[in-house]
Amino acid sequence: MYKGLWCVILYSLALVMLLSGAYWHVNCTVYVMAGLFFGWDIWFVCGEHFEGRTTTKILSHCRDAETLMSYFIGFYAAVLAVVFTDTGKTTTFLKACHQAHLSMCFVGAPLVLAAIPMLFIPVEFGKKKDEAAHQKEDITRSVKALMFVNIYFEKLVVFTFVHDLLRISMALVKLSEW
User: Fold this and answer.
1) 100: phi then psi, degrees, rounded to nearest 5
2) What is the pLDDT of residues 11-44, one digit of tens each?
3) Is the pLDDT of residue 131 over 80?
4) At what angle do helices 5-24 and 141-177 cross, to 10 degrees?
5) pTM of the model
6) What residue ranges do the domains of the chain occupy?
7) What is the 3-state secondary structure (H, E, C) of the chain?
8) Average pLDDT, integer, range 124-152
């Protein structure tokens, strides 16, 4: 899907931004990467990057993304449930969030962001057609928009989750040194 040196450069920048945000305890790195990811995905969807793709394959990818995001929501909700059901863990977690200058809105953001693409997943696409007719039809703007929502939010959820995880982990290390 993505190829070229610019792809490696953008992902390297994302890694630098993750580490910078964790080190300096700032959220602006997430906002910068959200903007870069948005521009990157718009460029992909609006460009001529759909050679060899079919509507069926794109919709299959979107359904797979829905499945992965639903697993992530379940995992993340379970982690938060474990943290917030034990008073000792809750206190430590909240101290770590305070130490990392991380608000509860940012902690909950991956959970909310993961749910957004699932609102745009079609259960069925149009009328039933045979596979050969489906392979020949052009990829519509709505299918491209659906793909954009999926690839953008997948990146954003992973980036935000790792950002939060790094900041909380670094704060827990600092708290344990006291």
Assistant:
1) -85, 0
2) 899 999 999 999 998 999 999 999 999 999 998 8
3) no
4) 40
5) 0.85
6) 5-177
7) CCCCHHHHHHHHHHHHHHHHHHHHCCCHHHHHHHHHHHHHHHHHHHCCCCCCCCHHHHHHHHHHHHHHHHHHHHHHHHHHHHHHHCHHHHHHHHHHHHHCCCCHHHHHHHHHHHHCHHHHCCCCCCCCCCHHHHHHCCCCHHHHHHHHHHHHHHHHHHHHHHHHHHHHHHHHHHHHHC
8) 72
